[in-house]
Specification:
Elements: H1 10-32, H2 37-55, H3 61-73, H4 75-85, H5 89-101
Length: about 100
């Protein structure tokens, strides 16, 4: 398998995985208790942004928005986040990303 992660240093790869784990953990909290969305939205956005910046040195807010829009139309992403964090996690992530980027 030749993925972008194959080119990462071990430290960068570990940082990417830890950031993803943090993102999933926070999304799980909101899936279980939607009232926590406001409280956790900054952290969720920041973790998603940090994760993207790790894998994408050319990160821009426009790219971030494009990725969030892609999540809406690509079932693979919906399955990825929903399988890891619970049904509805992808929709929560999209909503949070769009709200933060609209500020």
């Amino acid at each position: 398998m030749n993925s972008k992660a194959d080119n990462f240093s071990e430290e960068k790869f570990n940082q990417m995985k830890a950031t993803e784990a943090d993102l999933v953990r926070e999304l799980q909290k909101v899936v279980k208790d939607p009232s926590k969305e406001t409280e956790l939205s900054d952290t969720i956005f920041q973790n998603h942004q940090k994760w993207l910046k790790i894998i994408m040195p050319n990160y821009t807010p426009e790219i971030h928005l494009g990725i969030a829009n892609g999540y809406e139309t690509d079932e693979r992403y919906q399955s990825y986040y929903d399988d890891k964090a619970g049904k509805g996690a992808t929709k929560i992530l999209i909503k949070i990303v769009k709200a933060h980027l609209a500020k």
